[in-house]
UniProtKB/TrEMBL annotation:
Keywords: Magnesium, Metal-binding, Transferase. Residues 1-10 have a biased composition (Low complexity). GO terms for biological process: fatty acid biosynthetic process. This is holo-[acyl-carrier-protein] synthase. Its cofactor is Mg(2+). Residues 156-248 form the 4'-phosphopantetheinyl transferase domain. GO terms for molecular function: holo-[acyl-carrier-protein] synthase activity; magnesium ion binding. It is an enzyme of class 2 (transferase). Coiled coil: none annotated. Residues 11-20 have a biased composition (Pro residues).
């Protein structure tokens, strides 16, 4: 990862006008600045927010109105108000962010989505749709207190966020022995203390999640023990697919490859965020720089001051 492009902090927009039938996404987002341009397949834009910043029920209701009926039903089925709020804001963040990348030519409410057979969501463009098919890919991840959405152009993306002090039901070595490759397990065993093992385990898990999500497979379609993530001494990140998985054409893991690039960043000092996208250069084994993410505040949802954007240039 070579460069991080920062956004300037933007003032909060004025209150939105009363909603009327036929209001477009451009009207909804007219007071907001456009995002930085996705210049090529080598860029990933990450937007993230903290649900804890929103405590106004009327604003949450406004975001709810951006969702499809099935998204609303799913959000309301969540157990507890906080999980419902996270579900609403996650979908609102996806819809408003994608709308911005169409220069607000598509109303956030008009986006339709489909899932592949492994459950990864994608934008649905219908054959009879006269709108431009914007070459956008996205992926979303959230915890109970942080939501992140990654956007790329013409390139699949996977992102994952995890709490650095995430509670694990078992000792991390037991989990690593069950889910990770032998080389990853040995790497953790050789670390000096349990705190270091916990920290490294969460990093590896976050990177692995981002990879299988970028593949569009998820954990069930690409088991973690079929590939290794290597965190090098120079803070580089490398992927190595187990030889048996690479050579088995009948395996469910025939999608695995080493043609992927990674970024690992810290958010708020309390979370790890990993991003993964395909490497255009096709140069297997290339290392990329690890760095702490520094961003400036930028607004994407109404009255939401704590939303940030960063542009990664691979």
């Amino acid at each position: 990862m070579r460069q991080c492009l920062l956004r300037r902090a933007m003032p909060l927009p004025p209150p939105p006008p009363p909603r009327t039938p036929g209001v477009t996404g451009g009207r909804l987002l007219s007071s907001l600045s456009p995002p930085p341009r996705l210049q090529s397949r080598r860029e990933v834009h990450i937007w993230y927010l903290s649900p804890d910043e929103l405590n106004d029920a009327s604003q949450l209701k406004m975001y709810m109105e951006l969702l499809s009926p099935s998204e609303r039903k799913n959000a309301l089925s969540m157990n507890g108000e906080n999980l419902q709020k996270v579900a609403v804001l996650s979908r609102a963040l996806v819809r408003t962010t994608l709308s911005r990348y169409t220069d607000c030519k598509i109303d956030p409410r008009l986006f339709e989505f489909k899932k592949n057979k492994f459950g990864k969501p994608e934008i649905l463009w219908r054959a009879d749709d006269d709108r431009i098919e914007w070459p956008l890919h996205f992926n979303i991840s959230h915890t109970s207190s942080l939501i992140a959405c990654g956007v790329t152009m013409d390139a699949p993306i996977g992102i994952d966020i995890e709490e650095k002090k995430r509670n694990t039901a078992k000792n991390v070595l037991s989990l690593a022995d069950r889910y990770f490759t032998p080389s990853e397990f040995d790497h953790l065993v050789n670390l000096p203390d349990p705190d270091a093992q916990q920290k490294e385990f969460i990093k590896l898990w976050t990177l692995k999640e981002a990879y299988v999500k970028a593949l569009g497979r998820g954990f069930s379609g690409a088991p973690f023990n079929k590939f290794s993530i290597i965190l090098a001494a120079n803070n580089g990140i490398q992927i190595s697919v187990e030889p048996k998985a690479l050579n088995d054409s009948n395996s469910s893991c025939d999608c695995l490859s080493e043609n992927w690039k990674f970024a690992l960043a810290e958010l708020y000092g309390s979370y790890y965020m990993a991003a993964c996208m395909e490497d255009d250069s096709r140069s297997s084994g290339l290392f990329f720089e690890y760095f702490s993410l520094h961003t400036n505040s930028s607004v994407t949802l109404f009255f939401f001051p704590d939303i940030f954007t960063a542009c990664y240039r691979f």
